[in-house]
């Protein structure tokens, strides 16, 4: 039979396959709270403007509150014949309160309705994600404060480069995640305009008050152009792109956890709570959570790409293509929330093996740059010359199977006669670390200060 919401001119119902491709209730039920919230604001405005009566508005409010309760308690029957969440709720409302329910859709279209619901939903998710993100940043900052002076090898090309501290490494991620946080907040500011009242595409002839619904729903203002309001999803794309960048950061951290847990590195140990065993190899402790956190970017960046392709080339205004905006956004949201929480769990769980980190930080000629810097600072040699001399000393130490600070002064002087005993003062790991006091550098005292600054900032939030 024809659709009860729009089937006036229809004699026949849809083909089964039409129904299947058309219905979105299977996923957009997740917008139910926002849909009811939007309808309550719309009805209040209609009554205030005398477009519907006060009695109707009261009946609508009561009906919608009951529906919310039915959905919350699992009693509500979602019906695929009613396509989407908007018509499921509206149909139930009319069923409950009759005529008044049928007046709710005055001066409104599903086009402005869904755009409003979706913005409300995303706004709430941004707030959840930012909270969870802050909590991860707090965990990282706490661990960073704990290990502000703990040496570890810093890598470039995954080759030992210079000593750094573990705290400094962890705080690098706090900086990245903080930028992710601000990116989401920037997007939140732009999405916080209310499409309601744009109606199908052209606005409405009813004397509505768009500022009122915008305020009731916590938006900063109504959107300025009715066509734009119902036909763009750039706010969702911006959200997904911010999530993709965040997932990329989390993926790098996850990868480092995987590397750090590996037997040859053994920089950290994850407890039984965050590893799994192998069904065949009894010795294994696999960092599955980290690997999955590394992989989630696939879904998240995939979601961004999906929606970008859906929107590409769509003529104004609304087209049903846009119903495909929700699943990628839901999927990406679920994936990032899970990843953030698992990551926080691992960061709090990990036990660093500071001996192993120290050992690797002092091997691999990690203080070679300090030697070259000493030649420049004390002997006033040009850096390129110093680099060359140091290279020869590294090669000599390598041949003898020694660390740089184990070479004798005679060995050193064979390459550069002006070298004195003083050179050994810069070759130790501790001296190297302590000397990196330039702004943003890895010296333990810098790192302690930075960790404290993050801790007070994050705790104040
Ligand atoms: N379920 C639809 C969506 O998600 C609601 C808007 C439908 N509007 C329309 N004119 N068919 O986009």
From TrEMBL:
<keyword id="KW-0028">Amino-acid biosynthesis</keyword>
<comment type="similarity">
    <text>Belongs to the lyase 1 family. Argininosuccinate lyase subfamily.</text>
</comment>
<dbReference type="InterPro" id="IPR022761">
    <property type="entry name" value="Fumarate_lyase_N"/>
</dbReference>
<keyword id="KW-0055">Arginine biosynthesis</keyword>
<dbReference type="GO" id="GO:0005829">
    <property type="term" value="C:cytosol"/>
</dbReference>
<dbReference type="GO" id="GO:0042450">
    <property type="term" value="P:L-arginine biosynthetic process via ornithine"/>
</dbReference>
<feature type="domain" description="Argininosuccinate lyase C-terminal">
    <location>
        <begin position="365"/>
        <end position="433"/>
    </location>
</feature>
<dbReference type="InterPro" id="IPR024083">
    <property type="entry name" value="Fumarase/histidase_N"/>
</dbReference>
<dbReference type="InterPro" id="IPR020557">
    <property type="entry name" value="Fumarate_lyase_CS"/>
</dbReference>
<dbReference type="InterPro" id="IPR009049">
    <property type="entry name" value="Argininosuccinate_lyase"/>
</dbReference>
<dbReference type="InterPro" id="IPR029419">
    <property type="entry name" value="Arg_succ_lyase_C"/>
</dbReference>
<protein>
    <recommendedName>
        <fullName>Argininosuccinate lyase</fullName>
        <ecNumber>4.3.2.1</ecNumber>
    </recommendedName>
</protein>
<dbReference type="Pfam" id="PF00206">
    <property type="entry name" value="Lyase_1"/>
</dbReference>
<dbReference type="GO" id="GO:0004056">
    <property type="term" value="F:argininosuccinate lyase activity"/>
</dbReference>
<dbReference type="InterPro" id="IPR008948">
    <property type="entry name" value="L-Aspartase-like"/>
</dbReference>
<dbReference type="InterPro" id="IPR000362">
    <property type="entry name" value="Fumarate_lyase_fam"/>
</dbReference>
<feature type="domain" description="Fumarate lyase N-terminal">
    <location>
        <begin position="8"/>
        <end position="302"/>
    </location>
</feature>
<dbReference type="Pfam" id="PF14698">
    <property type="entry name" value="ASL_C2"/>
</dbReference>
<keyword id="KW-0963">Cytoplasm</keyword>
<keyword id="KW-0456">Lyase</keyword>
<comment type="pathway">
    <text>Amino-acid biosynthesis; L-arginine biosynthesis; L-arginine from L-ornithine and carbamoyl phosphate: step 3/3.</text>
</comment>
